[in-house]
Amino acid sequence: MPPAISEPPVATKNETEERLLDAALTLFAAKGFAATSVREIIEAVGVTRPVLYYYCEGKQDLFERVVRWKHDDAYEQLAGSLTATKGTTNRLRAIIRGTFAFCANDPRVPQLMFQTTFGPVVSELSEFLQEIAERRFAIVADVMREGLAAGELQGGNETALALLFCSLMDYHANLLSRFPDPQRRLTPELADALVNAFLNGVATERGATPQIPMSF
Predict the structure, then answer these.
(1) Is 148 strand, coil or helix?
(2) What is the pLDDT of residues 145-204, one digit of tens each?
(3) Which domains, ranges and CATH numbers included, belong to the chain?
(4) Are 161 and 86 in contact (CB under 8 A)?
(5) DSSP labels, 94-124
């Protein structure tokens, strides 16, 4: 058997690998990691077990490749967008807009992360998933820290604010990606309204209440 590829691919190497990653993403998103078998994956792709092990070391390695395949480019694009964007409000809008567009473009991705995060604990994936979560959380926390330093934010530290912001964003991304036509629901308008709600609150004494579009 040829040696397994040990490093995650920047891009799929050929059609077979692309079909393998795509089929694994579909199954992992629908059933979760634990309930998906290697046999189901190879049957979905129409290849043999040795072919799968040519491209990966096993199911865990395949799962990690699938996540990196979808997330690495998204994080690079987000980092580039934030570098070119000035002001805390605009940068927070860029984060949610980018996240919504990413999830709407392929709803299997948020479904996969929802399955993995809230499904049965998979000990062998815990370190990898923590790495993925910390990478994105650090991006948001950096924006919060810079906003606090500039006096554009107040009322907490960067960790607490990032956690609150991610909770607001992720709830909508995970929920609305499960409805039909997520591109109609995960809109820039909703993203901006959520940023306004995060920054201004919804108490009437603060002034105009942010209007959050109904997307259900």
Answers:
(1) helix
(2) 999 999 999 888 999 999 999 999 999 998 999 899 999 999 999 999 999 999 998 776
(3) 15-201 (1.10.357.10)
(4) no
(5) HHHHHHHHHHHH-THHHHHHHHHHHSS--GG
